[in-house]
Write a structure and sequence with these properties.
Helix content is about 30%, strand content about 30%. By secondary structure, it is an alpha+beta fold. The protein has one domain (about 10-170): Peptide deformylase (Peptide Deformylase), CATH 3.90.45. Strands 1-2-3-6-7 form a five-stranded antiparallel β-sheet. Strands 4-5 form a two-stranded antiparallel ribbon. β6 (about 110-115) and β7 (about 120-125) form a beta hairpin. The radius of gyration is 16 Å and the shape is globular. About 35% of the residues are buried.
Length: about 170
């Protein structure tokens, strides 16, 4: 089931999400719904707070090649366990901040541990777009948006545009 995505500024996007204590069928359904919502948007990552659920859950799939099979990842309680000193800068966007993009510099590699949908512990080193995306989504779980990395003036301009967008959508 596709879920509505919260638009910045929304106070839920600035809250720290709670760890998932026990995997339930409801949480697995939420993860499936989030993947459907992400693919439909279309996007490459989505965090539970973006659909109004303050649990530590993210989904991502950064496969871009048309002929490559999708690689949907569901991560409960994802945690960065190591990051490279080498940095990468990518133009980031966010489904909660539609049509706004900015360069953000992050570690080029991130090693992440998480629990998969079956309750198994997983760990993987991500590079390139995958590293940027997983760090971006984990930031969401900590109440941080990609615009928080920008200079105050640019951040305020984007926030004002989002407020205007929300007012326009409310009128429809």
């Amino acid at each position: 089931m596709k879920r509505p995505i919260l638009i910045h500024p929304d106070p839920r996007l600035k809250k720290v999400a709670a760890p998932v204590a026990d995997l339930s069928d409801d949480l697995r359904t939420l993860a499936d719904d989030m993947l459907e919502t992400m693919y439909n948007a279309p996007g490459i990552g989505l965090a539970a707070p973006q659909v109004g659920v303050l649990d530590r859950l993210i989904v991502l799939d950064c496969v871009k090649e048309d002929d490559a099979p999708p690689r949907p990842l569901i991560m409960f309680n994802p945690q960065i366990v190591a990051q490279s000193d080498k940095l990468n800068t990518y133009e980031e966007g966010c489904l909660s901040i539609p049509d706004e993009y900015a360069d953000v510099t992050r570690p080029a590699e991130a090693e992440v541990a998480w629990i998969d949908r079956n309750g198994n512990t997983q760990q993987e080193v991500f590079t390139g777009l995958w590293a940027t995306c997983v760090q971006h989504e984990i930031d969401h779980l900590d109440g941080k948006l990609f615009i928080d990395y920008l200079k105050p003036m640019k951040r305020q301009m984007i926030t004002r545009r989002m407020q205007k967008l929300k007012r326009e959508r409310a009128r429809v």
